[in-house]
Each structure stands twice: as structure tokens, then as C-alpha cells.
Amino acid sequence: MPTFPESMTRLEDVVIDSLRARLGAAVAGFVVAETRDEPTPWLTLEFRVFDYLPVVFVYDRGRGGFSVDYGARRIGMNVPQPTSGIASPEDVAQMVDAFADTARLWVPDKFLEARGW
């Protein structure tokens, strides 16, 4: 029985689906910047949230995280993940929920209110 994620394509689909389910129209512009399954799994997924924050999700050998991308510099977002790493779609959904709450703190309230978020 294969372990999750079976491939980086599968993980990409789960992350995007979870982000869309949680944030709807507030998330857009998905670009897979880098992906590989062998010799070690790696995924770099870029997107925009709240039409304000450029975000990068990076997965490397069972661990993942979100960063705000300021070009030459990425600022990590303090989003907790399971202690055993990302082992299921449910783990991804929990991380995305925590990410959505954290991302709101990075965006001015007036900006969110003006756009109905």
C-alpha cells in the first residue's frame, strides 16, 4: 500500500483543492515552480492569497510549509504541521486551515473588508 503522497502531482492536487475549499476566490494564480518524485520528493507551489500576498508552499521529504515570497527573500509563516509530517490529505487540510487563519493576520483588515473577505 503506497504512502501519502503517492506522487508530487497527487500532493499538488490535494494542496490546491484544500486551499480552494477553505479560501474559495481568495486564492488564485497557482504555479508549480518545481516538482520531483525521485530521488527525494520535492514540490514548490506558488500562489496568491487575498489578492495581496504572494505565497509559496514547499514540500520536502514529508515536511511542508508556507512562506510569503518577497522576491529574493521568503518569510516563513508560523503554520503548525503534524509532528509526524504530512502523512494524509487530512494533514494537508489541517495545515491549510491554520495557514488561512495566519494569512488573514498578514493582510490589513481594511483591505479584506473592501473585498468582502
Strands, total number: 5
Q: Which runs of at least 5 residues are low in confidence (pLDDT < 50)?
A: none
Subunit arrangement of the protein: single chain
β-strand amount: 25-35%
Give the tally of structural domains.
Answer: 1
Rg calculated over all Cα atoms = 14 Å
What structural category characterises the helix and strand content? alpha+beta
Counting DSSP H or I runs of 4 or more residues, the number of helices is: 3
Average predicted confidence as pLDDT: 93
Strand order in space, largest sheet: 1-2-3-4-5
The CA-CA distance between the termini, in Å, is 41 Å
Q: Categorize the overall geometry.
A: globular
Q: Characterize the biggest β-sheet.
A: 5 strands, antiparallel
- What is the succession of H and E elements? HEEEEEHH
Helix content: 25-40%
Kindly describe this structure:
- This protein has 117 residues and is an alpha+beta fold.
- The chain has one domain.
- The protein is built from 3 helices and 5 strands, in the order αβββββαα.
- A 5-stranded antiparallel beta sheet has the order 1-2-3-4-5, with helices on one face.
- Helix 1 (8-23) packs across helix 2.
- The longest helix has 18 residues, at 89-106.
- It is globular, with a radius of gyration of 14 Å.
- The chain starts with 7 loop residues before the first helix and ends with a helix.
- The model has no long low-confidence stretch (mean pLDDT 93).
